[in-house]
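4.2 Preliminary Data

To establish feasibility before requesting continued support, the project team ran the inverse folding procedure on a target of 316 residues. The structure was first converted into the token representation described in Section 3, and no sequence information of any kind was made available to the design step. The complete token record follows.
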């Protein structure tokens, strides 16, 4: 019995190639590669002015919160507002921040105290960027006691050439409020001197337990004096005063039962029992005052001619 097989032919209509129109995305970067003036290789990352602003109030008073968007930087803070001074846990690529460095224009802001760099001293509105070096640190960057945990360089927003003002007012939960004002004089007549003055006032209630965060007061003054054929002479002064009731840390066992200890903090009243009254919240406070002052004086050093060169000139 014979059977007939019909060949199966598949026919595909040729579809026209799709062409996508060119799409151009523009915007201001939040993080850019950075280097020191004399370096040829970009060895760091810089959080730009826009990147600082994008992170809100937490980044206005804490340098570490401002760079927390960078990979390899881990910030743990008990306070949602960035007001908790010296109670943060910060690591750069796993290394504690107390082993790192923080500088303003290359000038370290701390010494050998084990607390580490003071990230809470400044209003970050006064910086044009924050450079972070998590690996090799440029040789011309002053790091003070060392940079094992990386180096952070704060780059000031020096006085502007035109008169201007910057004003911000913030409110939030737990009676949070912050006022900030900065004035730039612009280039003054005759000498071209440029000045800036800023001030801020911040306070809030603690989100758990009794007590307050603040008041925090900050004052900053900068001067820039142009010099013909040289870099500007610059002067920096920063004052910071901060008072706060501390947060009580949890033990490992308490942390394992976080639901039961979520709001655990210092005692709100005295009991008369000494062993318990050491945890009275008014016995666990911080009152911090810091002054930061330096000047940048550019000098050109010329090499003196050797004696042989002088002798040759005399013989001529």
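Position-by-position output of the design step:
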């Amino acid at each position: 019995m014979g059977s007939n097989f019909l060949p199966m032919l598949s026919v595909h209509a040729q579809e026209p190639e799709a062409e996508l129109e060119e799409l151009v995305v523009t915007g201001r970067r939040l993080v850019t590669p950075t280097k020191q003036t004399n370096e040829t290789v970009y060895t760091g990352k810089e959080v730009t002015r826009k990147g600082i602003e994008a992170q809100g109030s937490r980044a206005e008073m804490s340098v570490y919160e401002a760079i927390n968007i960078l990979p390899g930087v881990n910030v743990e803070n008990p306070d949602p507002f960035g007001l908790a001074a010296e109670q943060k846990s910060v690591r750069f690529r796993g290394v504690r921040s107390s082993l790192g460095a923080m500088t303003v224009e290359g000038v370290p802001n701390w010494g050998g105290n084990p607390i580490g760099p003071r990230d809470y001293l400044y209003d970050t509105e006064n910086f044009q960027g924050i450079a972070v070096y998590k690996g090799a640190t440029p040789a011309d960057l002053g790091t003070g006691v060392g940079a094992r945990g990386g180096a952070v360089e704060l780059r000031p927003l020096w006085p502007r050439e035109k008169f201007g003002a910057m004003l911000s007012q913030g409110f939030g939960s737990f009676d949070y409020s912050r006022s900030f004002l900065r004035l730039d004089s612009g280039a003054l007549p005759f000498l071209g001197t440029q000045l800036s003055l800023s001030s801020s006032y911040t306070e809030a209630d603690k989100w758990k337990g009794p007590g307050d965060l603040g008041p925090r007061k900050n004052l900053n003054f900068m001067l820039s004096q142009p010099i013909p054929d040289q870099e500007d002479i610059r002067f920096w002064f920063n004052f910071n005063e901060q008072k706060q009731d501390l947060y009580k840390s949890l033990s490992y066992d308490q942390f394992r039962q976080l639901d039961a200890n979520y709001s655990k903090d210092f005692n709100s009243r005295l009991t008369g029992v000494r062993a318990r009254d050491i945890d009275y919240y008014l016995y666990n406070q911080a009152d911090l005052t810091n002054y930061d002052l330096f000047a940048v004086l550019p000098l050109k050093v010329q090499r003196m001619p050797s004696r042989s060169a002088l002798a040759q000139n005399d013989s001529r």
